[in-house]
Amino acid sequence: MIFETHQPAAPFDSLIESIFYYRDFQPDHSIERVVPTGHTFVIFELDGIERNTFEKKTLKPNAGFRNAWVSGVHRNYLSISAHRNSEMFVIQFKPYGAYPFLHLSMQHLADRVVPCNEFPNAGLLEFREELAQAETPITKFAVADAWMTSHYQEALTAPKSIVDIVELLQAQPASKLKEVIDHYEGSQKHLISQFKKFVGITPKQYQRILRFNDVFVQIQAEQPLNWSDIAHRCGYSDQSHFIREFRNFSGFNPESYRRQEFDEDASNFFPLDRDTKETQ
Q: What digits encode the pLDDT tens for the residues 204-233?
């Protein structure tokens, strides 16, 4: 498998979390569950394979995507397809970084996976065609740099006050949510409105995502697992609160998660059908 990453230059480095490209991915499963991270992604398939999202309970396909699409910030888990011989190119934006390139308020993308034709001014289909023609990872990243330069609108960047709140939420424990919100000079109503515009969700919802991702940091660091200790360190009020949030964000309760040995895998992606062999 080929896996390459790229860090763009300023000013785009302040808006982009990661750009990565991979080829010849060979998963041992065909459906995986994705835990939200608080980011928006632009995703390109370069292999001609349709990707699907799935109903949460039945795991029946509910939508198909080709060429390019945008996955907005999600407030709970998403089930997606995984394919052998995959070739993908992905831009992961910082929580407030996508608006200047997509030219659409992020609240319209929350909890959605949206095909590229809903972004007529972003040139995503043309971007995908140029990526497909570029022969090496380096030239593909150069295509991405050119797209960012041509579609970036500085006037749509998040104000420093919103960037500051995002960074404070990332740095402070969940118990400090009120203090972080009080740091904002405007009204709470205005903060929520601005946060939805540039991030897609409210500060409280974003903080819940951050806290749950901290659970996976604790899981990777602690063996054997002690759920009570993890819940306490991550700021959950009690065990029932922790279990409820765990199920909401992952679709599992903590014990079923442990029985399936997901703690041995990379966090945020859980294979749901490892015994099923992907044939594509």
A: 999 999 999 998 888 877 777 789 999 998
Residue 53: helix, strand or coil by DSSP? strand
Choose one of 156, 183, 215: the last residue of a domain. Answer: 156
Over range 21-32, report the average pLDDT.
93
Contact 125, 44 (CB under 8 A): no
Does residue 277 belong to any structural domain of this protein?
Answer: no
The number of angstroms, rounded, from the C-alpha of 178 to the middle of its chain's C-alpha atoms is 25
Confidence of residue 248 (pLDDT cuts 50, 70, 90): very high
Q: Are residues 21 and 61 in the same domain?
A: yes
What phi and psi, each to the nearest 5 degrees, are found at residue 55? Answer: -60, 140
Place of tokens 């740099």: 145
CA distance 62 to 149: 35
Same domain, 182 and 150: no
229 shares a domain with 101: no
pLDDT over threshold 50, residue 121: yes
State phi, psi for 139 to the nearest 5 degrees.
-70, -30
